[in-house]
Amino acid sequence: MKREDEQHLPMSAPAEDLVQIVRQPIDPLALMNHVRGPGDGAVASFDGCVRDNSAGRATLYLEYEGYEPMARLKMLEICARIRERFAIHRVAIVHRLGRLEIGETSVFIAVSAAHRGPAFEACRYAIDTLKRIVPIWKKEFFADGAVWADGEIPPSGNPGAPAGV
Amino acid sequence: MKREDEQHLPMSAPAEDLVQIVRQPIDPLALMNHVRGPGDGAVASFDGCVRDNSAGRATLYLEYEGYEPMARLKMLEICARIRERFAIHRVAIVHRLGRLEIGETSVFIAVSAAHRGPAFEACRYAIDTLKRIVPIWKKEFFADGAVWADGEIPPSGNPGAPAGV
Amino acid sequence: MQVKVLFFGSLREIVGRAEESAEIAPGARIEDLFAHFRERHHELAPFRPSLVASRNQEFAPWSEPLAAGDEIAFLPPVSGG
Amino acid sequence: MQVKVLFFGSLREIVGRAEESAEIAPGARIEDLFAHFRERHHELAPFRPSLVASRNQEFAPWSEPLAAGDEIAFLPPVSGG
What we know:
heterotetramer; A: four-stranded mixed beta sheet; 3 helices; C: five-stranded mixed beta sheet
């Protein structure tokens, strides 16, 4: 469901979508403002932040590492998938890398739409898919050591086809 | 699922929740920051904003009117219901009344949780329930007239029992 | 006995006021209070099926008896959000 | 022919480098390239079942043939978000 004033844009133009990998603090307000337009009635957002514990073990801080160019491509792929599946207007996805302290935002996703249903569903789909297919890794530092977080094995082996959801 | 450091708070203490009815612009960042604590890994937000059209008819602006003390009570009831149903940490719900221009935020909801599932579900539940039970009314102004928006008839007649969802 | 009555949205526009006092007989129910206003404002009648009532800021059945000093509101379908 | 190989997370720590060049025989597949590194770093072996491979920044099956100049990465389970 595209707005009237967008009908002349080519279908493949997510030019308005915002995908970034950054090493500085994320500004959620800028992203929420980026996605909203006059035809929108809803902006759903997800803010992933650093918890002070992992399964009860006290976390000191996290370090995120990414395969940056591929991560960007996968985040763009998420935007494209969202546009195919949900009646949304615009998407912003930003992931931070490097050392993050407790309470800091590691990922922020904002999705605008005329109606709240698609905005919520697309936002949820975006973070669920990001955690499955975007090549980023988190190392958790504890008082007595550090571990690479248990992750998810991305669906693969069938390049070109959309990874199953 | 309460955090360790909250176990001594009385069950009925949503003292940390924020419920407001305002007549000035809403500050989403303040609300997102209000709900997040060190035990949170997720903040889900919903921003309801004024669309430039209603079923294709161009909207000039909106006016919101509320039964303020009862609306506050119902918003607090939503917070309480959310705490019962979802493993969340903190909730903020703010609704604006008066005249709102296109693009402005009429309602903002933020919910924090250790994990994203409950944060998303509680946030969605909050806006869905707000639209059904909170006594607030929206008048839509068009170039050629104004109408009170079609609304939802709140479940009633059984006070004390939670309104069905 | 006296009760306070609040009108919102379309009802407020019909009645021309957001708040009224009403003197009603002991034993009267919310339904009777609505009838009292419907007699003075016939345009209220068609709204009845879509209204819910509140008593002291909580939803209440139309059959609920009133007490002196009650704050009653007749609420059109809500459209916040 | 030569390909570029990238290592991330736990694999980067094992190999001790984020990037390597490898000289491999024409016709080699991604699986063969991994075997090449596994011979030099035996600690890589137990990771194999949980890894996926990428070729030129897209997921690729282990059986995919390599071409000169390819950028190959061995990706541990992802844990962004």
